[in-house]
Amino acid sequence: MSFTLAKTERLAAILSRCPVLPVLTFSTPKAAVEAAKALRDGGLMVLEITMRTPQALDALRAVVDEVEGVTVGAGTLLEPEQVQAAIAAGADFLVSPGTSSRVLAAGSEAPIPYLPGVSTVSEAMQLAERGATFAKFFPAGPAGGPAFLKALIAPLPDLHFVPTGGVDASNAQSYLSLSNVACVGGSWVAPQDAVEAGDWSRVSSLAREAAALKAR
User: Fold this and answer.
1) Within a 13 Å sphere around the CA of 131, how many CA atoms are in the beta-carbon half?
2) Sequence spans of domains, the chain
3) CB 34 within 8 A of CB 58
4) CB burial class (10 A; 0-12, 13-18, 19+) of residue 139?
5) Correct CATH for 5-211 of 1.20.1070.10, 3.20.20.70, 3.50.4.10, 3.90.1150.10
6) Which one, of 137, 139, 158, lies nearest residue 149 by Cα?
7) Within 10 Å of residue 41's Cβ, how many Cβ atoms?
């Protein structure tokens, strides 16, 4: 159970495409497709669709099939079966909020890149021992925010993070200014009320603002 160099390089390339990774939850495939187009048009080319609704896999599959130019990840993976289902639906990468032994095994052995989640130094060290160089930091705000990640630069210089949870337009840059942050994840670029109202111009506008942020 390890993270191969090839998949690590693929994940690095994916995370380098945008400073902000939209973390999205959809109730219909149609909304997913329209939101993905709006985010892409605003400059955010990498998306994470969470597996939190019964329609999540259909939404992911629809975006993969119908929206050109985007890289689509499956997030909130809690069971090994979800890992396999996401791969079958066409996911380009996998994300979990934490690192249970079963999901960690399924994710690290998957044929596509996997971004596991951590919230403590011990969890980060365990991933580093297995060869991981990227981890989701969740929930970023409650778990310590930018100060926590800054404190990890010296002891864990080879591990880079995608902070998610409590990250928004007001504090994203404080994370992105850190040398060990690859990008940030957040839902603010596609607010639920805008998605429900079909206000895609607002989503594109928020995406343009987010795409203009700079990682160090």
Assistant:
1) 13
2) 5-211
3) no
4) middle
5) 3.20.20.70
6) 137
7) 15
Q: What is the pTM of this model?
A: 0.96
Q: Which amino acid is at 60?
A: L
DSSP assignment of 159-187 equals -EEEEBSS--TTTHHHHHTSTTB--EEES
* Catalytic annotation, residues: 48, 136
- In the Cβ-directed half-sphere of 141, how many Cα atoms lie within 13 Å? 9
Residue 201 tokens read as: 């111009």
- Residue 15's pLDDT band, with cuts at 50, 70 and 90, is very high
Q: What is the mean pLDDT of residues 113-140?
A: 96
Tokens of 45: 């080319």
pLDDT in tens, 141-187: 999 999 999 999 999 999 999 999 999 999 999 999 999 999 999 99
